């Protein structure tokens, strides 16, 4: 086993040992919530509400009644909605985050994603100097675990809307409509010719059809070929619909935080709390980070990006700006840079979400009527209680983009340094598409690679990466449109 896997087994064992030893000492997930300057708002106590509303203290004789009676110990009273309440704030403490919903899932996903990225980076550095063509790439196993767990958490968050009662009917309808819309869009995209969209699914299907048929025939098995192209694309469309439905509320939530961040810096600029240049720069950077998602979508559109940079001679040049291999390397790097750009902005977005507690209270002051003390306290504290749900909705699409591009680069046999150094990887097509030896009666690594060629991986993970980028941008766009034109101001 060690001979087969070589240095990769050592890298994996070191990573597992680090997870075992450091998980109780240091957690990157805890650091993102407790050490990035996030501030939460504390709900007012019953005593403070009584003093502000001028109510008398609860009669101590009533508190001596037997506690077996329901609600005897609950002090509920009503206060005016327009009561002048100032919320206290404090930095998020480490002992407070363990009670948050979905915190353990967030901690596991973020920490394991970090270790998986380190394993992948170590393996890529090793494979650059010593190719691992005849070995199993264990870093792909780590990336697979991250992708599966991210899908599982996102599915759990989406199913919460279906477990709720009547009050969640609107959310359920939105998810169902989003799934139908994404299904129609995916079906339209899957019938587009490859000369328009560089997803290479048709090339992947032809390659898999040829190699799988040859593989089965050389093992004495009759074969009519794999499933028809229509069936394959139908199941891909279903996957696209499910993914788009799961992205709709994370996209709307992220758009709401983006909108609140811009409004926050505009208000600070008006009141002079920050320099105008600083506010303008931050707002410009945030808007640019939103536009970069659209640029990622365009990277797979052939007439706009691929042909323009790799096939056409620009004015003043006698050859294309870059080769196809250099463009693939640039595409991988741009996806990684966009992901890290959005992760860098995460504390700003999360603080905008936590500020909703103060904004809701300020909005309530404009309303007439009365509210109970428990409802007001719940209105403030529920924002912090769902912090991990919101941060998961922000992080999961970025994690999926990052690790799908890892799959696309590695299994598609591309290079990270091709955009800088012209050292394009060579693919032995004769070895990939050659027939298996007649006397080979077992499934080996080489025979598996002869079936699942680089063309197959490029088609599968190229389309998956592009669809994740597209559906995430579409969800963000819907959220921005809602906040701009439909949301009550």
TrEMBL record:
<feature type="transmembrane region" description="Helical">
    <location>
        <begin position="383"/>
        <end position="408"/>
    </location>
</feature>
<feature type="transmembrane region" description="Helical">
    <location>
        <begin position="6"/>
        <end position="23"/>
    </location>
</feature>
<feature type="transmembrane region" description="Helical">
    <location>
        <begin position="174"/>
        <end position="192"/>
    </location>
</feature>
<feature type="transmembrane region" description="Helical">
    <location>
        <begin position="281"/>
        <end position="301"/>
    </location>
</feature>
<feature type="transmembrane region" description="Helical">
    <location>
        <begin position="460"/>
        <end position="482"/>
    </location>
</feature>
<dbReference type="GO" id="GO:0016020">
    <property type="term" value="C:membrane"/>
</dbReference>
<feature type="transmembrane region" description="Helical">
    <location>
        <begin position="333"/>
        <end position="356"/>
    </location>
</feature>
<dbReference type="InterPro" id="IPR019395">
    <property type="entry name" value="Transmembrane_161A/B"/>
</dbReference>
<keyword id="KW-0812">Transmembrane</keyword>
<feature type="transmembrane region" description="Helical">
    <location>
        <begin position="108"/>
        <end position="127"/>
    </location>
</feature>
<comment type="similarity">
    <text>Belongs to the TMEM161 family.</text>
</comment>
<keyword id="KW-0472">Membrane</keyword>
<protein>
    <recommendedName>
        <fullName>Transmembrane protein 161B</fullName>
    </recommendedName>
</protein>
<keyword id="KW-1133">Transmembrane helix</keyword>
<feature type="transmembrane region" description="Helical">
    <location>
        <begin position="230"/>
        <end position="249"/>
    </location>
</feature>
<dbReference type="Pfam" id="PF10268">
    <property type="entry name" value="Tmemb_161AB"/>
</dbReference>
<keyword id="KW-0325">Glycoprotein</keyword>
<feature type="transmembrane region" description="Helical">
    <location>
        <begin position="139"/>
        <end position="162"/>
    </location>
</feature>
């Amino acid at each position: 086993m060690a001979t087969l896997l070589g240095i990769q087994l050592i890298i994996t064992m070191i990573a597992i040992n680090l997870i075992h030893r450091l998980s109780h000492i240091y957690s990157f997930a805890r650091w993102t919530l407790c050490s990035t300057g996030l501030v939460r708002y504390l709900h007012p106590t019953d005593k403070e509400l009584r003093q502000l509303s001028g109510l008398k203290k609860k009669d101590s004789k009533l508190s001596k009644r037997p506690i077996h009676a329901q609600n005897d110990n609950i002090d509920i009273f009503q206060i005016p909605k327009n009561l002048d309440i100032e919320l206290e704030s404090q930095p998020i403490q480490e002992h407070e985050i363990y009670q948050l919903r979905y915190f353990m899932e967030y901690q596991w996903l973020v920490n394991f994603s970090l270790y998986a990225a380190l394993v992948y980076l170590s393996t890529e550095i090793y494979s650059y100097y010593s190719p691992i063509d005849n070995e199993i790439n264990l870093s792909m196993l780590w990336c697979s675990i991250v992708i599966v767990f991210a899908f599982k958490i996102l599915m759990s968050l989406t199913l919460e809307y279906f477990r709720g009662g009547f009050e969640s009917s609107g959310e359920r309808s939105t998810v169902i409509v989003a799934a139908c819309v994404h299904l129609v869009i995916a079906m339209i995209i899957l019938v587009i010719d490859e000369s328009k969209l560089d997803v290479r699914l048709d090339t992947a299907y032809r390659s898999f059809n040829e190699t799988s048929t040859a593989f089965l025939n050389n093992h004495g098995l009759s074969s009519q070929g794999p499933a028809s192209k229509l069936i394959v694309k139908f199941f891909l469309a279903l996957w696209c619909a499910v993914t788009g439905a799961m992205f709709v509320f994370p996209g709307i939530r992220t758009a709401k935080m983006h909108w609140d961040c811009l409004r926050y810096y505009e208000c600070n600029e008006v009141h002079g709390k920050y320099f105008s240049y600083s506010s303008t720069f931050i707002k410009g950077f945030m808007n640019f980070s939103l536009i970069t998602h659209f640029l990622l979508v365009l990277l797979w559109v052939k007439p706009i990006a691929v042909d323009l940079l790799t096939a056409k001679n620009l004015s003043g040049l006698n050859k294309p700006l870059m080769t196809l291999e250099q463009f693939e390397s640039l595409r991988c790097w741009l996806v990684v840079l966009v992901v890290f750009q959005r992760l860098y902005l995460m504390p700003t977005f999360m603080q905008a979400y936590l500020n909703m507690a103060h904004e809701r209270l300020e909005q309530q002051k404009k309303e007439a009527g009365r509210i109970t003390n428990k409802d007001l306290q719940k209105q403030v504290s529920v924002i912090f209680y769902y912090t991990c749900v919101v941060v998961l909705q922000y992080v999961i699409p970025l994690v999926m983009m990052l690790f799908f591009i890892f799959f696309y680069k590695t299994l598609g046999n591309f290079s990270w340094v091709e955009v800088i150094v012209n050292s394009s990887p060579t693919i032995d097509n004769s070895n990939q598409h050659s027939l298996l030896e007649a006397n080979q009666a077992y499934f080996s690594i080489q025979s598996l690679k002869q079936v699942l060629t680089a063309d197959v991986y490029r088609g599968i993970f190229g389309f998956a990466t592009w669809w994740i980028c597209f559906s995430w941008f579409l969800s963000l766009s819907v959220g921005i449109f809602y906040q701009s034109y439909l949301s009550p101001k």
